[in-house]
Amino acid sequence: MHVFVAGAAGAIGRFLVPELIAAGHRVTGTSRTESGLDRLRAQGATAVRLDVFDAEAVARAVADASPDAIVHQLTALNGGTSADNSRIRRIGTRNLVDAAKRAGVLRIVAQSIAWAYEAGDGPAKEDTPLDVTAPAPRSNVIGGIQALEGAVAELAEHVVLRYGLFYGPGTWYRPGGLVADVLRNGGPTGDPASVFLSGLAADDGVTSFVHVEDAAAATVAALRWPSGTVNVVDDEPAPAREWLPALAAAVGAPAPAPTSGRAGWQRGADNALARSLGWTPRHATWRTGFTGQVVRIRPVNGPRVT
């Protein structure tokens, strides 16, 4: 299968592209930067520089590649803000889906999030409604997710992956990463994302994590999954008063003092559907994943098919 990966040089892409090639797929990947393009070429992919907000450029790139499927991994996590991410979800996704339609591409796998569900008790399943009545600024996040998932569903074959919070190499939650800096400094560190992270509290708010390697493996598998929405999270949703001290210890930073309380939407997510489809996370829980974040990147050499 020829797979067009939009946003292929990010945290997921560093694992996803080698996984796809090792599985026998041919990959065309996009990046905004020369360093990203160089990484993609080194991994064995065809590299294309692309501005996702340029609708005609997106249409040309997809038409020129003529892929069998598109994988949407576009984000603004590297130096961007929540508003930037929502803009990508709204406009970038629209451009990508329109390009797929024009090129006759029927299948898409897209990145969404597992913390957009409405308030409730216990981990959310895929049929739990999104938090559409959330106030600002959360409403901007939810609106972006609605726009992304709605656009993706216009294609005949579509899989929306609601990933848990990423950790591992290339993420905020890694040794030497942004979270470690925020924990050490107790506040924003200059990166726009640190403003969001400065609110980290060891409270009762429940989070579902997923290691980026496991997220990549699920994305490869999703090329064969039936259309629908799937939570891609590990086996142990947990309150911050449990996982934040463990993360702080793993990254060598002090942990905030424990406290209580949570927002209603901080409930985590259930991964039973993904497991029923055959996905098994290598890092089944953050408890062991945090302390073993340096993982093997699979070799890029392998047979290719079209």
CATH homologous superfamily descriptor? NAD(P)-binding Rossmann-like Domain
**CATH topology (level 3) name:** Rossmann fold
Q: Which sequence of SSEs, written as H and E, runs from N to C?
A: EHEHEHEHEHEEHHEEHEEHHH
Please outline the major beta sheet: 7 strands, parallel
Q: How far apart, in Å, are the first and last alpha carbons?
A: 5 Å
Low-confidence stretches: 294-306
Q: Output the strand order for the largest sheet.
A: 3-2-1-4-5-6-10
Average of pLDDT: 91
Number of domains: 1
Structural class: alpha/beta
Could you characterize what this model shows?
There is one protein chain. The chain has eleven helices and eleven strands. The protein is α/β, with parallel strands linked by helices. It has a single domain, classed as Rossmann fold (3-Layer(aba) Sandwich). A seven-stranded parallel beta sheet has the order 3-2-1-4-5-6-10, with helices on both faces. It has a two-stranded parallel ribbon with strand order 7-9. A two-stranded antiparallel ribbon has the order 8-11. Helix 4 links the parallel strand 4 and strand 5. The C terminus is likely disordered.
